[in-house]
Amino acid sequence: MYLKLAAIALLWWVAYSNLLPLTQWLAFDVFGLARGSQLGDSVAFFIYDVPKILLLLSGMIFAISIVRTFFSPERTRALLGGKRQGVGNVLAASLGIVTPFCSCSAVPLFIGFVESGIPLGVTFSFLIAAPTINEVAVILLYSMFGWRVAALYIASGLTIAIIAGILIGALRLERHVEDFVWQMQRSGEAEAERLPWTERVERATESVREIVGKVWLYVVVGIAVGAGIHGYVPESALAGIMGKQAWWPVPVAVLLGVHCTRTRRAWCR
Fold first, then answer.
1. 96 and 164 together in one domain
2. What pLDDT, in 10s, does the model give residues 241-260?
């Protein structure tokens, strides 16, 4: 199994490392497009970015899914149990990045965490970070804008989750939690989920197949639009429409993100 994983990783790296020369060979030698032309730049952009982003998605989702197999809900509750405000909020928000829980899991997770005696503020730090920081978004941001933008996205999500959890803990909102939650019997100390590596790999492979199978068409269409913009639309035109003087792009993007998050909940079922 380990040799198979190493071989797959090596093949992935070879394919990713040779994308640029392969792209140039296809666009300019096989298709005969002129270097520096609008059509040539657009086609080269498309041929390069489609496999690049799909490879990054597949590789990172596989790796993250392997990590996620070590964090069952019981294991996560055990790790967060007994942590104080501050340290607990940081740990909870950090665990929220790698654990496999989305906004659809908020209610059962909330009940389970409170049932286990985890402070309310720490619970909310986890529940805010888990759906907010999305690994697919991290991969796309890294591939399209570089590590600085991806790191800023992660840092912003963590900061919001930590501060919100600390504020909720400081406000002592436990009185607003329904009585039936407190009356539930607390679960005992949870043991880590023990899985053979073959099953971990199967779960990771299934995650790659499911996620990439759902988003690949949107990735291709988005890159096609970007390729057309890259080759045919001057930078000054985009700067004039969505530049620093325009106030509306950010709130519109936020509203679109809220809508997409709500409609995406069906994926988690």
1. yes
2. 666 666 666 676 667 666 55
